[in-house]
Write a structure and sequence with these properties.
mainly alpha
């Protein structure tokens, strides 16, 4: 499968610009990437459930904290270069080579320094054990730099089928190998070797499907191109770092305050709660950037933005809220007593998947509107606000007791439930961030908050009967001798069967939009060479 050059004037390139063709291509891309990511995520979820049988929360927490440190170095050194490849599809091969050159160079420097400074870093966050994991993770992330460039080229060319399949292959390799090595007794090192294997598989598979000339054939490095590249990339890099911090640095705060065991439990609960957002919301965000970029009018972009928000909430909200509703039964089914605290954290954190995709859509839209500084400000504000709220909420019991409100602290059991209050801070921070993106879009394009928010309410309301159905089934089965697995299946079935008619009745407009897009995409499949 060969990609079509971005600057091609061929009939196929022209065809992609026709009204309707781009929308169908975007929908097909979303369907392909969601389908493949859901499949691989299912394997990954099974792997996560199995690996908790072989690893204690302390070991899992240490490996998770090491990953946060290495990924922080990875993100700091991106400088928005990978986003540049996707957001500027008409800049040509020379721009891609510039982005590749600097992306790999900066990655080698940042990851090398992390390895050299692993001792002081581990002592700083009170987790000396992570120093053992950092070198292997740094190697995996350096390989991932190469894979990322090729992945972004495929996304730029809207070759979503190849992207989805290759991402899924890497995730499946990671899940299978991590469980196998943990079962063999390698402990936390199993996660590191699995990460290296995933990156190797991604590099090999992407190299086989991405024309080397598109990214690896040398071009002369010029100051003008470099200046343009970093003028776009640096604000995006700060935004990306802040966005990463809002998703990962909370682990460092939780670990420092409550210990690596609680950090491991929190990380697992967060990753489970994040499945609807990352596997659907982030995937659709990948599709939207090149789609928005190739639309030929602002009016089309505005309509696509509002449509994307409505449909995404219709898809993600029931998955997120349903996951929170079944959390107690889910955890009892798959985890042993060491991980029992995951249930309450998962219930509280599930709200973040409802609101996070709105931020991703807003970021995709503002990238194409060439507003990297606005994205940067929003993401930095988000990270600072998130960490501040976590520290505030986890210290509520100290604050209330300092003010002499001992009865309030005791009634709310603030000391006992401090980690759950911290989880609540995460959901609040992401909600405020989504509203922030909407406010910026109002200023940029004149779309009022009412225009953006009101269409999102019916899909949320449609989730209420689903949650009530799950709770009702659980209450009806309380005390019964049924196996816990059957109880979980009954709750999931009740929720799913309730939501479909509820959505058609309470959110008819969004439901029709989704069905129409899927129907049109099925009727008009793109030629095989564009897949």
């Amino acid at each position: 499968m060969q990609s079509v050059p971005v600057d091609s004037k061929s009939a196929s390139a022209e065809e992609r610009q026709k009204p309707g063709a781009l929308a169908r291509r975007a929908v097909l891309g979303a369907v392909w990437t969601i389908a493949t990511s859901v499949g691989s995520r299912a394997v990954g979820l099974i792997g996560t459930l199995l690996i908790t049988r072989f690893l204690d929360p302390d070991v899992y927490g240490e490996a998770s904290l090491a990953a946060v440190v290495v990924l922080t170095a990875f993100v700091i050194s991106t400088c928005g270069l990978s986003q540049y490849i996707v957001s500027k599809p008409n800049e040509g091969r020379a721009a891609v080579f510039h982005a590749t050159f600097y992306f790999l160079l900066l990655g080698a420097v940042a990851l090398g320094l992390t390895v050299l400074l692993r001792g002081p870093i581990s002592r700083l966050i009170h987790a000396p054990g992570i120093a053992l994991y950092i070198p292997g993770l740094a190697l995996a992330m350096m390989l991932e730099r190469v894979a990322t460039v090729q992945d972004r080229i495929l996304v730029r060319d809207m070759r979503f089928r190849a992207v989805g399949l290759q991402r899924s292959l890497g995730d499946i390799v990671y899940a299978v190998l991590s469980v196998s090595l943990a079962w063999a007794g390698l402990g936390g090192a199993a996660l590191i070797w699995a990460a290296i294997a995933r990156s190797v598989v991604r590099v090999v598979s992407l190299s086989a499907t991405t024309p080397r000339r598109e990214w690896f054939e040398p071009c002369r490095i010029t100051w003008k191109r470099t200046r343009d590249l970093f003028a776009f990339g640096l604000p995006m890099s700060i935004a990306a770092l802040a966005g990463f911090g809002s998703r990962r640095w909370d682990n460092l705060v939780i670990g420092r305050h409550f210990g690596k065991g609680v950090a491991g439990i929190y990380n697992l609960a967060y990753n489970l709660a994040d499945i609807p957002a990352t596997q659907i919301g982030e995937t659709i965000g990948d599709v939207l950037v090149p789609s928005f970029a190739q639309m030929d009018s602002d009016e089309r972009r505005r309509k696509a933005l509002l449509l994307s928000m409505r449909i995404l909430v219709l898809i993600v909200a029931p998955l997120a809220l349903g996951l929170g509703a079944i959390a107690p039964t889910l955890v009892s089914t798959f985890f042993d007593e060491r991980w029992s605290r995951v249930a309450n954290m998962l219930l509280v954190l599930s709200v973040l998947s409802v609101v996070r995709p709105i931020g991703w859509i807003g970021s995709s839209y503002l990238q194409v509107k060439n507003k990297p500084r606005a994205i940067m400000v929003l993401e930095v504000t988000m990270t600072v606000g998130l960490l501040s709220l976590i520290m505030l909420f986890q210290n509520l019991y100290r604050i209330t007791e300092h003010l002499g409100l001992y009865s309030l602290s005791s009634a709310l059991e603030l000391r006992r439930y401090a980690p759950l209050w911290a989880c609540g801070a995460v959901g609040l921070a992401f909600t405020l961030n989504s509203l922030g993106f909407m406010a910026v879009i109002r200023r940029v394009d004149g779309l009022s908050l009412r225009t953006q928010i009101v269409p999102l309410l019916p899909p949320l309301v449609a989730c209420a009967p689903m949650v009530l159905a799950v709770l009702g089934i659980r209450h009806a089965m309380a005390g019964s001798a049924l196996p816990i697995g059957l109880k979980l299946a009954a709750e999931m079935l009740a929720g799913g069967l309730t939501f479909v008619p509820s959505a058609l009745l309470l959110a008819p407009s969004s439901s029709r939009d989704l069905l129409t897009l899927l129907k049109n995409a099925r009727r008009r499949r793109m030629p095989a060479e564009n897949g």
